[in-house]
Amino acid sequence: MIAAFALLAGLVGGLFLHPTAPGWLEPYLPIAVVAALDAVFGAVRARFEGIFDDKVFVVSFVSNVLVAALVVYLGDNLGVGGQLSTAVVVVLGIRIFSNAAAIRRRLFRA
Amino acid sequence: MTSSLPPPARTAAGGRSFRIIGVVLLALLGFALAVSVRTNRGPAGLATARQEDLVRILDDLDSRAGRLRSQVSDLQQSRDRLTGAQGNQAALDESRQRAAQLGVLAGTLPAQGPGIVLTIDDPRQQVRADVLVDTIQELRDAGAEVIDLSGVRLGVDSYVVDRGSGLQVDGKTLTTPYRFTALGDPATMAQALKIPGGIVDSVAERPGAKASITSSTHLEVRSLRPLPTHKYARSAPS
Predict the structure, then answer these.
(1) How far is B60 from chain A (nearest CA, A)?
(2) 3-state secondary structure labels for all residues of chain B
């Protein structure tokens, strides 16, 4: 409950404060957001399966974001930034979908 | 992983701090989500484009700019050509006017204007070439711009010689009466010829010879000289 409120508060703050991301961060922000979403979906799935742990969530969240950003940064420096960011988004998207499928199974038993 | 080995005290203390961090992270995620969505909707999304995309876009723009630049220079050239046409017309008019003036001067074009007609009647052939040369000189001094002698247009290289049969001007044999048609100020030329000891007097000294002058406000000289072709002299850049 608190987590959902925190997410909502962040969204509202971001929408109303009109912040702009600093230049060096801008290319990595979308990737980091997708990676964080993956961690959030994993956490929701763990909550439904009864194995949620705050520490695991925090560590997976931070490491997901950092690894995604690092991979894209590396790709940019290697000259394959576009392809690697696509790869990261695809992998994270697959994970998000499988987590969402698990959540669905738990929720609707289908 | 940690959930498989739960020491109660640690879980409570560590769990709380991690929970707080987790909530903060979620708030941060919401914030970042909003920021990236906003940034993506920004102008053309160039700020978030990655370097190689930017390079490609820049290349595209460069080649497009090159094409447009060459178009611009093409159009400028044709514009200059078209606006230059008016200047050309002015230059052409000026050249035509100049050619007409020079043609009158050189005797290659017919001329008209006020002037006098000097007729030297000399049935006994007493008037020699020097009188005619003096007459030409006198007319030029008096400001004659075009002179015609019995159908021969006089130019800078005209000559008058005595032949046994009579006088020749520029190779053409003259018969009396000799008839000068000179374009210029009639009064000045008539006065120059009539002064005491002048042409009219010196002609009258010859037996049987007589000179008469008729002024006119409109005379035409239709005789022409061939265009001189220079063998050695060439125009030099001015």
Answers:
(1) 18
(2) CHHHCCCHHHHHHHHHHHHHHHHHHHHHHHHHHHHHHHHHCCCCCCCCCCHHHHHHHHHHHHHHHHHHHHHHHHHHHHHHHHHHHHHHHHHHHHHHHHHHHHHHHHCCCCEEEEEEEEEEECCCCCCCHHHHHHHHHHHHHCCCCEEEECCEECCCCCCEEEECCEEEECCEECCCCEEEEEECCHHHHHHHHHCCCCHHHHHHHCCCCEEEEEEEEEEEECCCCCCCCCCCCCCCCC
pLDDT in tens, B111-157: 999 999 999 998 888 888 888 899 999 999 999 999 999 989 998 88
What ipTM, to 2 d.p.?
0.79
Q: State the nearest Cα–Cα gap between B43 and chain A, in angstroms.
A: 13
- pTM to 2 decimal places: 0.45
Q: Is A41 on the interface with B (CB under 8 A)?
A: no
**Of the ranges B21-30, B39-48, B137-146, which one carries the lowest mean pLDDT score?**
B39-48
With CA atoms as reference, the chain A residue closest to B54 would be: A82
